[in-house]
Specification:
By secondary structure, the chain is of the alpha/beta class. The chain has two domains: 288 residues, Aminopeptidase (3-Layer(aba) Sandwich); 109 residues, Alpha-Beta Plaits. It is built from twelve helices and 15 strands. The strands form three sheets. Strands 1, 2, 3, 4, 5, 6, 13, 14 and 15 form a nine-stranded mixed β-sheet that branches. Strands 9-11-7-12 form a four-stranded antiparallel β-sheet, covered by helices on one side. The protein has a two-stranded antiparallel ribbon with strand order 8-10. A hairpin with a 5-residue loop joins strand 1 and strand 2. It starts with a helix and ends with a helix. Bound molecules: (2S)-amino(hydroxy)ethanoic acid and manganese (II) ion (MN) (2 copies). The site of one manganese (II) ion (MN) has 4 residues, from loops.
């Protein structure tokens, strides 16, 4: 008898949880990631599914013949941001296995293969690039660029894969695998408050905002904190600080989002003027034009403040995902079928969060279901979804799989 939703949830809960923060540190190709992957294999085995890890490190659990094609694929990711919540990613994977059990309990007979997927390294917490597994598969991250990605200790992505027992020799576009996927549906906890104040535990995604990550290197001159006169300094920290304030003001004015959430300082001594402040901007907006303008404005402010202090600034775009409009026909079909069977509305909503579904959408018909998050908080240990809402999400995903794979 496979584990229930609640049992699966309880099994995953301690994996990679940091005792001090209560948040998750499930970074790609680490020990916690290996434990998550082992859990995935166990769930597949308990259901008699064929489990495989593809060339890019994504796990697939197949019901039916993978080679038959036109598969209905569902799942999400099991890795986390630093001190992330329990739901972002795992809810989609656990719900996928639970929905397969739901289909079996209904006596539904799939006429297409169904797969549960765990995409590797969705958050990019370790190597800086979000959705590395799905991007490699879709060919939007080249093996050459992937080989150059390094973690904070200088370990490259291929080295990390190898140390974790995965052969990185064949990473890269996987058209053959994508050709087997007829449709992909990712269930995810909502990372916002669209559903929070409604009577709807479940919604359907309309679009993902364009978003990206930019690295700002502010380079100055290291010197003594006590003896260097204020007017003699080339301190990169004030230019960085002014850029953060400018980003907040500009994003607020544009109805967009700008966040500096990661920072490294060299030499990082209390009594030394820094030589380098390296900071990462995450910027998102509803439209590409607004986003381009926003990043241009933030760059302009950074250059202006840096010039004032005799500091150099370099900007590197590390990743970018254009706007994703989910296939309207599939989106409307799913919203309609779910609403017809429920006493509440099933809202169709956009999101500012990135997902593997956003990467796959360029290649295969793709949809997303969102489960209500009562506070909207995400990327934090406080992230939450009520158990009855999670169960409603599983029911919704079961309906979707039944409709897509069993008719
Ligand atoms: O950063 C993001 O949008 C995400 O949750 N992966
Ligand atoms: Mn996330
Ligand atoms: Mn996620």
């Amino acid at each position: 008898m496979p584990s229930s939703f609640q049992e699966m949830w309880a099994e995953l809960l301690p994996v990679g949880r940091h005792a001090g923060s209560g948040g998750y540190r499930r970074f790609a190709w680490t020990g916690a990631d290996a434990e998550c992957r082992a859990w995935f294999r166990e769930q597949a085995a308990a259901r008699g599914l064929t489990c495989e890890t593809d060339r890019n490190g994504n796990q697939w659990a197949w019901l039916g013949d993978p080679a038959a094609g036109d598969a209905v694929v569902t799942g999400s990711h099991l890795d986390s941001v630093p001190d992330g919540g329990a739901f972002d990613g795992p809810l989609g994977v656990v719900s996928a296995f639970a929905a397969l059990d739901g289909l079996a309990a209904r006596g539904a007979r799939p006429s297409r293969p169904i797969a549960v997927v765990n995409f590797g390294d969705e958050e990019g917490a370790r190597f800086g690039l979000a959705c590395a597994g799905s991007r490699l598969t879709a060919g939007v991250l080249t093996p050459e660029r992937a080989a150059g990605l390094r973690d904070a200790d200088g370990i490259s992505l291929p080295e990390a894969m190898e140390r974790a027992g995965h052969d990185p020799g064949a990473i890269g576009p996987d058209d053959e695998r994508l050709a087997r996927v007829g449709v992909f549906v990712e269930l995810h906890v909502e990372q916002g408050r669209h559903l929070a104040d409604t009577a709807s535990p479940v919604g359907v995604a309309s679009s993902i905002w364009p978003h990206g990550r930019w690295r700002f290197d502010f380079r100055g001159v290291a010197d003594h904190a006590g003896t260097t006169r204020m007017e003699d300094r080339h301190d990169p920290m004030p230019a960085y600080a002014a850029t953060v304030l400018a980003a907040r003001a500009r994003a607020a004015a544009a109805g967009a989002r700008a966040t500096f959430g990661k920072l490294s300082v060299e030499p990082n001594g209390v009594n030394a003027i820094p030589s380098l402040v390296r900071a990462w901007l995450d910027a998102r907006a509803a439209g590409q034009d607004v986003l381009d303008r926003l990043v241009g404005e933030i760059e302009g402010e950074a250059r202006e403040h840096a010039a004032r202090d005799g500091v150099r600034v370099e900007l590197t775009r590390e990743s970018f995902t254009p706007v994703v409009d989910f296939a309207p026909a599939l989106r409307d079909e799913l919203a309609g079928l779910l609403a017809a069977r429920r006493p509440y509305e099933v809202p169709v909503l956009p999101t500012g969060a990135g997902h593997d579904a956003g990467i796959l959408a360029a290649k295969v018909p793709t949809a997303m279901l969102f489960v209500r998050n009562p506070t909207g908080v995400s990327h934090s240990p406080a992230e939450h979804a009520r158990e009855d809402d999670c169960v409603a999400g599983v029911e919704a995903l079961t309906d979707v799989l039944e409709e897509l794979a069993c008719r």
